[in-house]
Amino acid sequence: MRERIQKTLAARGVGSRRQIEAWIAAGRITVNGKLATPGQPVDERDDIRLDGRRLRLTRGSDREHEGLAYHRSTQEDIRAGATGTMPSSLERLPKSAGRRWIPVSPLAARDGGLELFVTDGALAAALTRRGIGIASEFSVRVRGAFDESQIGATLAAASEAASAQGRITEVIPAGGEGSNRWLQVHATGLRPRDLRELFERCGLEANRILRTRFGPIAMDRVLARGRSRPLTEAELKALQDAARPQVTGDRSPGR
Fold this sequence. Notes:
This protein has 7 helices and 15 strands. It has 3 domains: 3-54, RNA-binding S4 domain (Structural Genomics Hypothetical 15.5 Kd Protein In mrcA-pckA Intergenic Region, Chain A), CATH 3.10.290.10; 67-131 and 217-243, Alpha-Beta Plaits (2-Layer Sandwich), CATH 3.30.70; 135-214, Pseudouridine synthase (2-Layer Sandwich). β8 (102-104) and β9 form a beta hairpin. Strands 7, 8, 9, 10, 11, 12, 13, 14 and 15 form a 9-stranded mixed beta sheet that branches. It has a 4-stranded antiparallel beta sheet with strand order 3-2-5-6. A two-stranded antiparallel ribbon has the order 1-4. The chain has 255 residues and is an alpha+beta fold. α1 (5-11) crosses α2 and α4 (121-129) packs across α7. The model is unreliable at 247-255 (pLDDT under 50). The two termini are 41 Å apart.
């Protein structure tokens, strides 16, 4: 079955759809000796090349897709070439024969913690589209004076006042000394930069944010910075479930 080139390559784990679109625009992908065009229909019989190297779409296509949980340090780039000061996250990951690792909802370089990578481009794209409905948890180091018993309600009120699409669902004090204290923040549809803005609205500085959970996947406490672990079959299934749009409303019998 012939499908659009972006969908075909992303589903094989060659890259995300956005990456593939950029490669096509840059003239890096050819189909049967001619420059590829966006949305061009292709299948496994076509000679598809990236930078002159043929992409063997059939190799490994029957294998189950894989995933990784990775503990990324702050200031570490996901991809090479941004700063060049240290190896990128992708350079630290184990190789997946015939496939590429695709980041899922990656964090900004200034933040760190849990990063997820999958070889299924369609899954990565679906999780990105569902981002607003996926719950996450963050460890946040906060500078400033606040009442620990009231901080959760204060942040929730700030979120509502900001008309943010996401929301904070729980805030748990997690220790610290002096003017720097840690909070465990549970949120839905909020990125670290959104959290920083909400803390600023409360007169506080969030000077460090680490993601500790994305959807059903939590970062193991024993997972050292710069290390990864394979996702289990159950975890990949849970990510696939999280990527599906949620049905709302009461569908009970008789309604």
